[in-house]
Structure formats: C-alpha cells, structure tokens
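Tokens for GntR family transcriptional regulator. Go.
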Amino acid sequence: MANPGEFEPPIRVDYPDPLWIQAVRLIRDQINSGSLAEGMRLPPERELCQQLGISRVTLRKALTQLVEDGVLAPSHGRGWYVGTANQDRDWSNDLESFSETAKRMGLEPSSEVVTVEERPASLDEAESLGVAPGTPLFHLDRVRLLADVPIARDETLVPAALMPDITGVDFETASLFSILADAGLAPERAESTIQARAADASLAESLRMQEGEPILEMHQIAYAADDRKVSMSRIRYAGDRYRLRTGFARGAH
C-alpha cells in the first residue's frame, strides 16, 4: 500500500483512459484503502501534480469530479479534504443560481466573461420572452467555473427595461440572480428542457474539452413571482461534469 499522498501505480500516458480519469481512480484508491481517511487533507496541488505527473488543469478536473461525487470537500485557501458520506454533490432540481449551487457544494464559483452587451431581440427571442421584436435585451455570455474548472457556458438574455443600473458590476464574480432579486425580480420558477449534444469546436475550447465530446444543453425561461418572464438562458454543461438530481411520482390517471 502507498503511503498517504503517494500514488501508485503512476499515471500512464499510453493508457486509453484520459489522464484526469486515471487521477480520479488513484485518489479514490487511496481513500478506499484507508490511506486517506475521512477529514484528512490531501497534499498541496503542486505536490500532487508532481506525484501524479499531470498538469494543474488536469488535476483540478479530477478533484472537481471527486467533489461532485461527494468524495472530496474543498476548503477555500486551505486545500482539499476527504469528505463525509452524506455530502450533497448533485445539481438540485430546485431553482438556484450557479453561485448558490456552488455554495451548497462547498465550491468556489467564478466566471470568465465572454460578452456583456445590449442588443435587439430577434423574432425567436422576442417570442420566448413575450416582448416585441427589436426590444433591447441585456446579453450576458459567461463560462462558469467551479474551483477553476469550467463546468458550463451560460448565455442569458434579460429584457433591458428590467435590468437595474449595472455600471461597475464585475460579472466574473457577481450573480445575475442576485442582481435581479435586488431589483424585486427574483426568479421564482422556470421552465427547462435538457438535451444531449456534441460540443462544437468553439464550445470545446471554452470548456477545455475535445470537440465532439458530449454536452447537456439546457434551455430555460425564468419567471418572477408575478409570472413575468425575466430571463431566458442557454446553458451548455460539460457532460462529464454535470449530474442533475430529480424525482418522479405517479399522478392520478
């Protein structure tokens, strides 16, 4: 058995499995063997990269997957710890912002802003939002990250008339849900559809994945308490980094 934090056998570049999956397996093996016990802190990331022979980006992808699986828990500024069995790491079917989901998971959210602009609504956008074609829309396009690992590409449109003054808002850290809530337009419910697709070259580059790899694409219309449509979003999740938890019940027939 390897000593705590010493991983063997080493990662093999000639194996068919991606390097990050091999890293996930090696860390799991350490935990399952008891070498890394519940509550124990993993070695620093620089040391882990050296021991495993992988880059920081690859390591972060492996660690984030283990957090989503409930195996690890991050502590901002302190490192990564072996988690407890009852950690909730699924993406809830409750309506919550990306920042709220990250907080529930114990992860640090951030964003890479691609576009912040105001533009006229197309015919399809106008129909979806219940506004006239050409109505000014606030357009926000971001890559969403957890612990510096890209999880999704999030494009959201809000009727510009509903947006408060956002001068000076840093959307790399700010929550659009919170901004709408502060304006009295907190999204209270949403209609969503999810379907599987393949990542095109542009999306693959922004999510640091391979072109053609699977993604889950969500289209969502959010409503305020008064049933006004406050936003429409297209969110494309890396397929191996997103797991939705939901429930079903038999209704009356």
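The mean pLDDT is 84.
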